[in-house]
Specification:
Length: 257
């Protein structure tokens, strides 16, 4: 039988391994079982571990600020939602990059109530021409909401895109961009970011989108030559592009891929 300390040590080792291989600071499922306790609102993380992640989030926020981004630490998802809704009140059109993180925040009903036009190319039933047209309009929308595949502790945003509309709109065009990400996207450096994207984000997205890709079957990148390959443009924002207004919200929670 394994006692609590043994389980905690095993979880910590697993987490260390995940961070070393670039998966980030997220809490794997197994860890919840050992160090998270049940609270009224569901599972709560151990306070000490939460504190460690808070420091890591704040380190990324400080680095992003040095690099010219308007970066904000959000203790909870609700803080990020409030920030986004406040910005959305000034907008008439809001573009969505297709981020799972944004989707998990479940902002849509509240945004719809504001009477703004939502530009979502992933809505079911759209033809490819309609999707393309929406993607083009996202490039000049008032507010563009997106996630990022990774952020380094040095404050660089790292993304790999297939179509390019997400990274395009992130860099230039919309009046305001908000990049929202969970602590699980924080990595040591660009090398770890790419590794994370190929090991986690791309296979998970390939599977979500039901694409005929090897990583959607094996869960591993084989640097495929597939026509459906989603890893086509690797974009690193070392500093905020000079004409862009980019706010980055880092939430001390696990969100997206
Ligand atoms: S290069 Fe191909 S196999 Fe590798 S993660 Fe991207 S889409 Fe998947």
């Amino acid at each position: 039988m394994v006692d609590d300390r043994g389980m905690l040590a095993a979880s910590e080792q697993r987490e260390k391994n995940l961070i070393q291989c670039g998966v980030g600071a997220g809490v794997p499922d197994g860890m919840n079982k050992s160090v998270c306790k049940s609270g009224e609102g569901g599972m709560e993380m151990d306070d000490n571990l939460l504190w460690v992640y808070e420091q890591r989030c704040k380190m990324a926020v400080a680095s992003l600020q040095k690099n010219g981004f308007d970066a904000v630490y959000c203790k909870r998802r609700e803080d990020a939602c409030r920030n986004i809704i406040d910005e959305a009140r000034k907008a008439r059109t809001i573009g969505f990059g297709g981020s799972m993180t944004v989707r998990e925040l479940q902002l849509e009903p509240e945004l719809e109530q504001l009477g703004v036009e939502l530009l979502q190319h992933n809505k079911p039933g759209l033809s490819s021409e309609e999707k393309l047209s929406i993607r083009r309009r996202q490039l000049t929308c008032d507010l563009f909401l997106t996630g990022s595949n990774a952020v380094t502790l040095n404050g660089q945003l790292v993304n790999v895109d297939g179509v390019g509309n997400r990274v395009g709109a992130m860099m230039f065009g919309p009046k305001q961009v908000i990049v929202v990400m969970g602590r699980n996207k924080i990595v040591e450096d660009v090398h770890a970011a790419i590794k994370r994207i190929k090991a986690v984000a791309a296979p998970a997205n390939a599977r979500r989108l039901n694409l005929k890709l090897p990583c959607a079957v094996t869960g591993q990148c084989s640097e495929c030559q597939s026509p459906e390959r989603i890893c086509r443009a690797t974009v690193i924002l070392d500093k905020k592009p000079s004409q862009a207004n980019i706010r980055v919200l880092i939430i001390n929670d696990d969100l997206g891929y």
